[in-house]
Please model this.
Amino acid sequence: MVRALVALAGMALVASPPTGETAFAAPAKAAKKKAAAPPVELPPLTIAAQRVTSWVADSGDNQSLPYIVIDKPAATIFVYDASGKPVATGPVLIGIAEGDDATPGVGSKKLSEIGPAEKTTPAGRYLAKFGRAAGNTKVLWVDYATSVAIHTIPPGNKENRTKRMLSPEIDDNRVTYGCINVPKAIYNGQIATLFGKKGGYVYILPDSKPLEATFPPLHARPVTEAVR
Model:
């Protein structure tokens, strides 16, 4: 079934599978090695976000790759480099419907066939890589099978997404078909640079599932030990 164009909806739909291809061309030579950017100051994290970020940092679960934590209930993204240093944070837009599982087969549906309850951003741990979507658009594929990707706000959208991303109301951030829309500055500045060559991990916190059901290693980490 023909998949729809990423730029026309909140869910990025498939044209070709993700690969290790570099998403953005790097300059042939750098005259001087740039100094490492200082870590960003993070806003207060929710307990769930603290538990996940502490676990990843302590265990090395990211396997020396950059990683992203998406706090769905807070509609916030946290971007970390391979060493675990926070490099960016900001608001995100996520699926219209609350829910932590993708409907089986949703990635093969036309946008017009996706029901309101199916427009969820699934929770979990994903190995994400840049790949092409329909229209030769490059996106960071989070879950290729369900057509969930990270990308900027699509042009020509009719839902006032930019305004909704900046709104202080979390409910305003639920507007996509399941994909995660992020600010251009974060996407082009940090995500493209860090994830462009080898990809990295994306940890999406649940709306309603127990955190331990989404990330089983947390069973061995009591809340009092993980939150610091």
User: Anything to note?
Assistant: The mean pLDDT is 83. The longest strand covers residues 124-133. Residues 125 and 203 are 5 Å apart (CA to CA). The two ends are 48 Å apart (CA to CA).
